[in-house]
Amino acid sequence: xxxxxxxxxxxxxxxxxxxxxxxxxxxxxxxxxxxxxxxxxxxxxxxxxxxxxxxxxxxxxxxxxxxxxxxxxxxxxxxxxxxxxxxxxxxxxxxxxxxxxxxxxxxxxxxxxxxxxxxxxxxxxxxxxxxxxxxxxxxxxxxxxxxxxxxxxxxxxxxxxxxxxxxxxxxxxxxxxxxxxxxxxxxxxxxxxxxxxxxxxxxxxxxxxxxxxxxxxxxxxxxxxxxxxxxxxxxxxxxxxxxxxxxxxxxxxxxxxxxxxxxxxxxxxxxxxxxxxxxxxxxxxxxxxxxxxxxxxxxxxxxxxxxxxxxxxxxxxxxxxxxxxxxxxxxxxxxxxxxxxxxxxxxxxxxxxxxxxxxxxxxxxxxxxxxxxxxxxxxxxxxxxxxxxxxxxxxxxxxxxxxxxxxxxxxxxxxxxxxxxxxxxxxxxxxxxxxxxxxxxxxxxxxxxxxxxxxxxxxxxxxxxxxxxxxxxxxxxxxxxxxxxxxxxxxxxxxxxxxxxxxxxxxxxxxxxxxxxxxxxxxxxxxxxxxxxxx
Length: 535
Fold this sequence. Notes:
Layout lengths: L6 H13 L8 E3 H8 L3 H9 L7 E4 L9 E6 L1 H14 L4 H10 L13 H10 L6 E2 L2 E2 L10 E4 L5 E4 L1 H8 L14 H7 L7 H15 L16 H13 L8 E9 L6 E11 L2 E8 L7 H6 L1 H10 L4 E12 L2 H7 L2 H21 L3 E2 L7 E6 L6 H27 L7 E17 L2 E7 L2 H11 L5 E4 H6 L2 H5 L1 E9 L2 E6 L3 E2 H7 L15 E8 L3
Parallel strand pairs: 14-16
Antiparallel strand pairs: 1-3, 2-3, 4-5, 6-7, 6-10, 8-9, 9-10, 11-13, 11-14, 12-13, 14-15, 16-20, 17-18, 17-20, 19-20
Helix pairs in contact: 9-10, 14-15
C-alpha cells in the first residue's frame, strides 16, 4: 500500500529522534554498533548525518569495555528504523538525492516501494480507490492472503510456490498446497491434467499467456523439459503455442486480459491478469472485470513487501539440493585477540568475500542452528546444483587467500584465516522461516547437519564432501576434480587420489580418539576436494 505520513507527524517524528535526551543508555546505540548491525561504512554514516537524514551523535563515555576509545558517538535507537527505510528506498530504485528530498519533505518513511511508476499517479490511485486496507499506528496490516481474488506465485521452474484459497477453488478446483512433489504443481502439467490442451479458444488464451511468460525466460528447445513426464504429443502442442506466443516485457508490474469459459458453454468469466516478475518468480492475480478489487495497484507497487510476504508463505517442497557449510577456523581465539570493531570488520569482510561467489553459483542463504555460514544450492533444470556448490567452495577458498594476505599485512600477525567447508547433498522438505524482517530458507533433516560436521572435521581451509555427492556427478564432471584422502604410512603422510575413507578410519589413522561430535558421521565415506584438474 502507498501511505504518506502527514507532514506534521513526520517532522515531529524526526524532531523527536534528533532531540532525544533520554539518559537511559539502553535507548541509545553506539556508532560502532550501528555500522556492525546495518553493514554500512562509517563514511556512509557520516554522509547520512551530513544530509540531515540522521541526528548528530551524542558524544559520551564508551560503555563497551572492549573499545579502546574513551568517548564514542551514540545515536537514539530510532536511527535503525530510519536506516532500514533508506535501504528499502535504495532497493526501490531511488537515488540518494531523491531519498533526501523524500525524507526531508515528509514523503517518507512509509512511502518507499514505488518501482517504475509515477509517484503522483500512485498517490492519486491511493485516494481514489478508497481505504480497502487496515492501518494501525501508521503501519499496513494487509497481507497477500487478504486479497480476495485468485492469485498464485510461480517459481522459475513454473511450479506453484504459493496460492491462495480463491486460486485453488476458482481456477484449479483442487488443493494445490497438499501436493508434496513440486513437479506436480507445475502450471503446464496442471493445465494438461485439466484438459486445457484440448480446450476451447478461451482456455488456449490462458495457455498462451503463460507460454508468453515462459518464452521470456527460456528457448523453445527447453519445451521438452517443461515438466517431468511430458509426452511427445504434449511437447508438440506446447511448441505450437510457443511459436504463437510473444515474449512479455519484464517490467515490474504488467497487465493482461483473459476470458475463461466455465463448465457451461455460455458461462464465461472475464479477468484482468495482473502479474509481477522478479528474481524469485512471477506473481499472477486474477481480477474479475465486473468486480473492482481495491488495493491491488497499491500492493503491487510495493515490490519488496510483496516478495517478503510471499516468501514467508512459500509451500514446503520435497527438493533435491546441495548445501555448503563454512566456518572460520579458530574464530573464538581470533575474536579474543582483536578489538570488537576490528573483529566485526573482519567478519563483514568475510561475508563480502563470499557473497559474490554465492550469487555467481546461485547459492541461497539458509537458516541453520549452528555457528556456520550456510548456503543452499537448489536443483534446477538449467544448473548443475552440485557442481555449483563445489565450484563455489573452491572460489571462496581462493578469495580467502587474498583476504588472509590483506589482514596479515594490516595486522603484522601470524594468524592464518581459513574457512573450513563441508558440502553435502540430499532430498528433503525445503521451506522458509520468518526471522524478523528477513526470510531464512531451511531444510528439515540431517543433510545440513552432516555438512556442518564435515566443516568441523575440515582444517586449514580444506573442503570435504560425501561419497554420495560425488557419485551423483557424472564421469566427466568427476574428471574435472582432484579429490582423495591423506593416508598415514608410519611417519609419512601420503595423498591417495580418487579415494574415499570413513571418518573413524582417518581419525584412528592419526591414533586419535574419535570425538563425540563426529560419532553421527563416523561411518560415512567422505573425500577431500583439492582443486580442479589441470587441462
